[in-house]
Amino acid sequence: MNYNEFSLLYNDILTQNKLDKYINDEICAKFFEFYNILIETNKVMNVTRILDARDAIVKHFADCLLLAELIPDEELCLIDVGCGGGFPTIPLAIVKKSLKITAIDSTTKKVDFVNSTAKALGLNNVTAVSARAEEFIDGKRESFDFATSRAVARLNMLVELTLPYVKIGGKLLAMKGAAVNEELEEALEGIKKLGGKHVKTYNIDLLDGDDINTRGIALIEKASKTPTTYPRKFGQIKNKPL
Ligand code: SAM
Predict the structure, then answer these.
(1) Which of 46, 60, 126, 152 has most ligand 1 atoms within 8 Å of CB, for mutation?
(2) Which residues are CB-neighbours of 241 under 8 A, at least 6 positions away?
(3) Which residue in 44, 55, 58, 206 has a CA-CA distance of 20 to 30 Å to 150?
């Protein structure tokens, strides 16, 4: 696919999803470059299951731009837990230049991919680190304005992996699917124990022509400090979610 074909698709999908503010050549060119890097890397390493350009624009790029809408354009720091092949890290870094992103993942190969992609795209606001969320906390408690995470764990586990990092008054944005309300019900007790407060859930239809992909983003605010007994070891988080 050449750049012109890609940009026509990109503009069409962003317009459908009322994301017009991200339609410009500089941003689109970065997403095109990122798409090509994903395709090339996928030949030697599994970074994504989505290879078709239209699907990548809808399910990866527009999906993450819907999240970008919830983050102000200010000098803020954000931790993306379980960034995998760079989602939402790289799309956020492309459209939010003032955001300082720390991306963590337990798989070193993915972290290397995210760092080299950020470098190739000229994004100097991303640092990816190879670490497990429950083990990386020392010195980073309550130090981020935002935490984000997509497709990492069920919400009742995810809150323990993310909320300890969030400053009081900061926010966790958990990217979920259609089951967001059900997951939230299960997680409410844990959110309270971790010093969080559920503020709102955004139910979003991610559109692609007649196809509707249901998305839910849970917004959880940090109301008070997380007790230092959290996060626990992963086995405990998994076997006995809060
Ligand atoms: N967020 C990316 C996305 O939406 O495409 C990746 C999703 S992938 C399904 C889940 C990622 O979470 C994997 O790359 C895995 O290594 C990472 N992960 C799972 N548990 C983790 C933990 N406790 N700490 C750090 N990374 C974790």
Answers:
(1) 152
(2) 154, 156, 157, 160, 186, 187, 190
(3) 44
Distance CA 172, CA 48 (A): 24
Q: Is 187 strand, coil or helix?
A: helix
- Pairwise CA distance, residues 11 & 14, whole Å: 5
Residue (of 22, 124, 7) closest to 65 by Cα position = 22
Could you tell me the pTM of the whole model? Answer: 0.97
Residues with CB under 6 Å of ligand 1 are 82-85, 87, 104-107, 110, 132-134, 150-152, 161, 234
Residues 6+ apart with CB under 8 A from 34: 61, 86, 90, 91, 94, 117, 121
List, edge to edge, every strand of the sheet that includes 144-150. 126-130, 99-105, 76-81, 144-150, 166-176, 211-222, 196-208
103 touches 131 (CB < 8 A): no
Question: Ligand 1 atom 3: the closest Cα is on which residue?
Answer: 87
| Interval 126-142 mean pLDDT | 98
Tokens of 88: 């939402």
For 19-53, the pLDDT digits (tens) are 999 999 999 999 999 999 999 999 999 998 998 99
HSE of 135, CA atoms in CB hemisphere, 13 A = 10
Smallest Cα–Cα separation from 159: which of 84, 232, 103? 232
